[in-house]
């Protein structure tokens, strides 16, 4: 009877350490999303920057995050993960103070670009810490719920930021809010208690697969295609709303509907992830997301605008945690940091190229409509590649 009871007892998912990592990650992304949709407006109104220049300046953040993430995975796997997390988080929070001294476009571009480095490293360390504090039986499910911290931040961050901006027209208050929020997240992370793990042996040969999860290259290409589309949508939606849709506060609602879709799909999809339906979740999610980009582009009215937000959210919420589980399942346990850095690096590559490419297309072709058609086309290519190759590659090389 006792054996049967123990067998039926499910390990706790929301343990105290997982909850702390979750809340601190929410603070990280809330500080980020509070400013994200406003920075194109800030550059346009403060420095009279054009569409292409806005894309170049804002892409710097993603590029530096991209550069440091492969090395971040190696560092996270080689040293104390908590110490690495706290150091990176501190640097991320401190950079918000730099926005108060941006008196020129060049100085803003420099500070924003450098800010991407601690952001990239912190997200790798935080997601790896989340995996570490989860019970193995609840790991796939926990990865899905961990993403809710990003999604809830996305739901309320842009809306609050846009509301404050339209109410008081003061960017310095928004910069100060992000600074304080980030330091609160750092304080929460400092209270995490995790067991010491055996670091990688110092005399182990350093090779390319210590920085990039080579068996996941095809999944990485898919993620790059999907994030390319998301980078265009998330960066230019505020300006598109004002200049094309003539909606002054519609982008806040767009982000909220997008996040609602992400939250709903992660809650629904966690059950199928727990049952091991990883490939199913990825397939369903990417198809839904692709349809969302098509609706957004092909139906340029208020109905298509908001319907697409919900569809893209539902699709990405199903796809991303399942894809992250793919990377984890392709990697040995001692290379979780590398697995997490690889998927985040792939995401950054797509977002960075999307921001630059979207801005250039909008500048030299048919405005933002052409940029959004490009987003749909690249997304569709990623979906086709997944079904033709990446899905079969995962099933061949998975370790778990």
Q: How many individual helices?
A: 14
Give the fraction of residues assigned to helices.
over 70%
Mean of pLDDT: 84
C-alpha termini separation? 31 Å
Task: State the major sheet.
Answer: none
Low-confidence stretches: 1-7
**How would you sum up the global shape?**
globular
| Number of strand elements | 0
Q: Classify the oligomer.
A: single chain
- Strand proportion, as a percent range, falls in under 5%
Order of helices and strands: HHHHHHHHHHHHHH
- The chain-level structural class is mainly alpha
Rounded to an integer in angstroms, the radius of gyration calculated over CA atoms is 20 Å
List the helices and strands and how they pair.
Layout (H helix, E strand, L loop, with lengths): L1 H7 L7 H20 L3 H9 L3 H28 L2 H15 L9 H29 L5 H30 L2 H19 L27 H27 L6 H25 L3 H21 L3 H29 L5 H29 L2 H31 L3
Helix pairs in contact: 2-6, 2-7, 2-8, 3-4, 4-6, 4-13, 5-6, 5-8, 6-13, 7-10, 7-12, 9-10, 9-13, 9-14, 10-12, 11-12, 11-14, 12-13, 13-14
Summarize the structure in words:
With 400 residues, this protein is mainly alpha-helical. Helix content is 80%, strand content 0%. The chain contains 14 helices and no strands. The protein has helices spanning 2-8, 16-35, 39-47, 51-78, 81-95, 105-133, 139-168, 171-189, 217-243, 250-274, 278-298, 302-330, 336-364, 367-397. Helix 5 packs antiparallel against helix 8 (171-189).
């Amino acid at each position: 009877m006792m054996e049967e009871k123990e067998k039926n007892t499910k390990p706790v998912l929301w343990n105290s350490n997982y909850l702390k990592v979750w809340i601190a990650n929410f603070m990280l992304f809330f500080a980020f999303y509070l400013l994200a949709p406003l920075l194109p407006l800030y550059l346009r109104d403060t420095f009279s920057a054009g569409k292409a220049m806005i894309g170049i300046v804002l892409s710097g953040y993603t590029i530096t995050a991209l550069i440091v993430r492969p090395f971040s995975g190696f560092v996270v796997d080689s040293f104390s993960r908590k110490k690495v997390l706290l150091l990176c988080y501190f640097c991320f929070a401190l950079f918000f103070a730099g926005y108060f001294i941006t008196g020129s476009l060049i100085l803003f571009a420099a500070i924003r670009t450098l800010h991407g480095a601690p952001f990239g490293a912190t997200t790798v360390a935080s997601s790896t810490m989340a995996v570490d504090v989860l019970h193995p039986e609840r790991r796939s499910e926990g990865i899905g719920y961990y993403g809710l911290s990003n999604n809830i931040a996305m739901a309320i961050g842009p809306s609050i930021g846009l509301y404050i901006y339209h109410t008081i027209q003061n960017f310095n208050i928004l910069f100060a809010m992000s600074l304080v929020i980030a330091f609160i997240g750092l304080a929460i992370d400092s209270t995490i208690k995790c067991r010491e793990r055996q670091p990688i042996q110092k005399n182990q040969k350093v090779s390319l697969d210590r920085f990039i999860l080579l068996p996941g290259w095809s999944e990485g290409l898919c993620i790059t295609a999907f994030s390319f589309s998301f980078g265009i949508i998330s960066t230019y939606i505020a300006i598109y709303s004002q200049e094309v849709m003539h909606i002054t506060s519609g982008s806040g609602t767009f982000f909220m509907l997008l996040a609602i879709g992400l939250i709903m799909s992660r809650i629904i999809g966690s059950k199928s992830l727990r049952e091991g339906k990883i490939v199913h979740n990825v397939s369903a999610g990417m198809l839904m997301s692709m349809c969302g980009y098509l609706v957004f582009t092909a139906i340029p009215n208020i109905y298509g605008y908001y319907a697409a937000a919900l569809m893209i959210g539902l699709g990405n919420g199903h796809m991303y945690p399942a894809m992250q589980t793919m990377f984890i399942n392709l990697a040995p346990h001692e290379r979780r940091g590398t697995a997490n850095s690889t998927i985040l690096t792939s995401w950054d590559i797509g977002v960075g190229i999307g921001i630059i490419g979207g801005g250039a297309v909008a500048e030299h072709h048919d405005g933002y409509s052409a940029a959004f058609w490009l987003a749909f086309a690249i997304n569709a290519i990623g979906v086709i590649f997944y079904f033709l190759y990446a899905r079969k590659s995962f099933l061949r090389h998975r370790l778990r």
